[in-house]
Amino acid sequence: MTRRRWIADSRTDTTATLTGDQAVHLARVLRAQPGQIFDVVAGGFLHRAEVLSVNEESVVFTLHEELEAEAALPVHLLMAVFKFDHMEWGIEKATELGAARITPVLARRTEKHLAQAAAKRVERWRRITLEASKQSRRTDVPTIDEPMPLKLALSHVTSETKLLLAETEQENSLRAALQGEVSRVSLAIGPEGGWTPEEMSLFSGSGWQPVTLGPRILRAETAAIAGLAICAALL
Ligand code: SAH
Asked: How distant, in Å, are the alpha carbons of 78, 107, 144, 154, 213 from that of 168?
């Protein structure tokens, strides 16, 4: 079984410090003692680490050797901003499933008030990914970009395989698009009202290929989860 990983809140060259809930949990529930060995993620690297000092405010570790960490699923999600409660749920699940990066997109059919409030939500989305990373024992935390319009988001995409999840596509399945030599993938998921025809042509002009997840219309968060699960199975 993989050991539980702890994610450090700060590190120096030789030590890492955990605070907040993790410190309380180590001190009070696990009764950690100096000298005990844990796996700690510090500054994005996984280390074997030895407890140096413990109290409920902070637990300090001496960092020992770096351990091999499994990489995130090489999937970049472009997720249109949609109803925040559903979107947060989607972000949490995408983190558990291993997404490497999430770009919130201000789509044409993203509701106005959501688009206006999105920038202020980023901090909360980042906290959700941090918590979900800890919970799912990830060694890294996915990047959440600042929300941006589609055109700009498309210019940030570096994957060779770019797949637009579209309920209007009837032939090409996501599964078929992932056959062969595919290493890094970007998946775009539209808002509740779907992408507009102009957005669809922006995508096709940037080399995106529409793919379907089947004949039913899924909610955006369901499409994100299903899309990632298929990537996880096939990549
Ligand atoms: N406008 C649509 C709903 C959009 S669903 C309607 O009500 O008719 C929100 C997003 O989920 C879509 O933009 C698409 O990215 C994704 N999605 C939903 N169902 C899908 C399916 N069957 N295949 C691929 N993507 C889907």
From this structure: 18, 17, 28, 20, 10
- Nearest 5 degrees, angle CA 61-CA 65-CA 69? 100
Quote the CA–CA distance of 111 and 192 in Å, as a whole number. Answer: 9
Counting ligand 1 atoms within 8 A of each CB, the residue from 105, 163, 208, 218 with the most, and so the one to mutate, is 218
The residue whose CB lies within 8 Å of the most ligand 1 atoms, and thus the one to mutate among 111, 167, 178, 213, is: 167
Per-residue pLDDT tens digits for 114-163: 999 999 999 999 999 999 998 888 888 899 999 999 999 999 999 999 99
How many angstroms is it from 219 CA to the middle of ligand 1?
Answer: 6
Q: Is the pTM of this model over 0.70?
A: yes
Q: Residue ranges of the alpha helices (H) in 28-111?
A: 84-97
Domain 73-234 has CATH 2.60.40.10: no
Confirm if 63 and 14 have CB atoms less than 8 A apart.
yes
CA angle (200 as vertex; 198, 203 as ends), nearest 5: 110
| CATH topology (fold) of 5-66 | Ribosomal Protein L25; Chain P (2.40.240)
